[in-house]
Each structure stands twice: as structure tokens, then as C-alpha cells.
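Usage

Read records sequentially. Each one opens with the input sequence:
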Amino acid sequence: MIRRLIPMLVLAASTLAFAAESVVIDTAHQSEKEKATRDELQRVISKYHLAAWSFTHRVLIDENSIPHSHPVLTIHIRHLGQEDALLSTYVHEQLHWFFVAHSADTDAAIADLKNLYPEVPVGYPEGANDTNSTYLHLLVCYEEGQFDSKLMGSDRAKAMMEFWSKDHYRWVYRTVHNDADKIENVIQAHKLVPPEVR
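and closes with the structure output:
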């Protein structure tokens, strides 16, 4: 009896592991560019073994939307054919889910950041949509740089962060670069390091 149960238990465990590591990627309009971006993102997730690390397992590719994390992680088609930018965007939006899951610690970290940076920019291209979001993005973009460095190597990650600092959240990415030690201290003080980066 036990011998018959073992293969079934192994199969059940492997099925659960696969399900836990799957990321479902849908397209909003089923356009060719959305499908191509979906396929490329699936390759990136597989190549870098991101499914098990991901904090949400549902993704939408929408050519008419800018990337955002909630309610469904959404990525646009802008970075089709640009693996590093697509990877970094995916990591960035996933990190928002991590910080939401740790909202009390995130709020405490933001309070510390407000003491460090009493005035922050709001709005494109320097800041985020509002003051709180700009502070939150100091945390998200710092961790994004850490993950990018681990996944793609320090040279490519540095190039990616430099690109973002001239693209959007410019002040945020510059500050993350210039004040990395200060921001890391805030993150460490509130234990906001995702386990995979430690």
C-alpha cells in the first residue's frame, strides 16, 4: 500500500510545485506585439527562474497601458526585444507586491525616508504620481537595482539603472544611485529585504 502511495505523493508534490511556480501571462488585446511581449516575458521568467520568486503570478500585457503593479501586474510592449528592460520592469512591478505585503514596515521605512528627504519631486519625469509614491519608489527602485545586479550582473544592471534615471522617476533613480547606503540602511532597519536577495 505504501509503495503505491509514494509515486502518487511525488506526483502530487511536483504538480503543486509547478503550480506554485507558474506565472500566467494574458494579453489585453491579443495583438501581435502583445503576444510577442508575452512570449518574450515567458522566456525571461524561465531563463532567470523568476516564477518561484514572483510575488504575484498573474500578469497582463497591455499595449495601451503604462506598467503598474495593481490590481493586476501590467506590462506594456515598449521593451519588446530589450531583455534587460523587460526583466527590470517585471522585477520593479513584482517588488510593489512585496512592499504591499509588508505594509506596516514599508510605512515605517517611508517615515524614515521623509526625515532624510523632506522635499521630493512629484510627477513625471522626476517623481511618481504623489509624494507617498515617490518615497515608496525609493524603496522599490533600490531593490530593483539589487535584483537586477543579481540577475543580470552588475555592469548590465548599472546600465539599466542609468537608462531609467534618464527615462522616468529620474530623481528617484539618481537618489538611489547617489544615496544607496542611506536607503539600504532604511531597508535593513525595517527588514524589507526579500529573502532571495539576502
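Summary fields computed downstream for this record:
- Residues 23-197 form one domain.
- The mean pLDDT is 90.
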